Amino acid sequence: MHKPDEIATKLLGVAYEALDERAKKVARHVAQRTHIARNVANDFAAPSSLGQRAADAVASFGGSWTFVGLFAAVMLVWLGLNGYLLANRGGTFDPYPYILLNLFLSMLAAIQAPVILMSQNRQAGKDRISAEHDYEVNLKAELEIMLLHEEIDLLREKQWDDLLLIQKEQLKLLAAMAEKK
User: Fold this and answer.
1) Domain range summary for the chain, segments of one domain joined by +
2) pLDDT above 90 (res 161)
């Protein structure tokens, strides 16, 4: 069994103390032969606040085809109602260039954009934790593969030594047989 400082020196070429915390953690897991993989979804199992759930819901709905369809329908109804009122009554509730509609759209964008950004920031945090975990798992796998290569190389060298010994014995036997003839 290897020690974490041996693994760091032999496989990474760096002293254990010089490693960052993630690399030290991986070296310890390799040395102890324990698994490092885990379900990172459990890291996010903590209940989210009402604001966080609302931000996620707004981002989910605001980025859907349902929202796009409803938005287009509201625009068409707004324009159609204004056109109908202009044609039949000579006036509209929001005359061209639709200043009231622009006001509503600006307010929607002003509220929707930061809420979507909050949701994206939460998702970026989750992605960052997942990427760090992936790095740890990949580093451990790489170190384990290097250890396996080392073990295979040692086995191969031992087999060559054993083979050379057997060959020397065979040569001695052949020489003894040749002398008897």
Assistant:
1) 35-180
2) yes
